[in-house]
Design a protein that fits this description.
By secondary structure, the chain is of the alpha+beta class. The chain has two domains: 60 residues, 2,3-Dihydroxybiphenyl 1,2-Dioxygenase, domain 1 (Roll); 67 residues, 2,3-Dihydroxybiphenyl 1,2-Dioxygenase, domain 1, CATH 3.10.180. The chain is built from three helices and nine strands, in the order βαβββαβαββββ. The radius of gyration is 16 Å and the shape is globular. Keywords: Dioxygenase, Oxidoreductase. This is Glyoxalase/bleomycin resistance/extradiol dioxygenase family protein.
Length: 136
Amino acid sequence: MKTKIFLNLAVKDLNRSVVFFTQLGFSFNQKFTNEKGTCLVIDENINVMLLVEEFYQTFTHKEICNTATTSEALISISLESRDKVDEMIEKAIKAGGLEYREKNDYGWMYQRTFFDPDGHHWEVFFMEESQIPEMS
């Protein structure tokens, strides 16, 4: 079995999150879905568990962060092109997300950022790896 990644995020309203990420073009693994959470499929081996806060809290004794004032993680996803990055941001805004910063264009990497309805920080980017400058 290949290694899989399951990132877990606390959400206030599971249905709102499902609608939001569906509008961005993502699908869900129904084997890992019930009223307490769902499995957002990023790729074959990369998943995000969207867990209602009460259920998420059963996995930790720590306080759930307030995403309005605290950064918990930067979730970055590479896409196939600059156009795909722009499309994802447009979909995120239309679905109720918030574009966080101005786009960054480094020539070899194009990056844009949004917050989902729960305030989680998502960065989507296109990177032309053959154009990455050599580090000195």
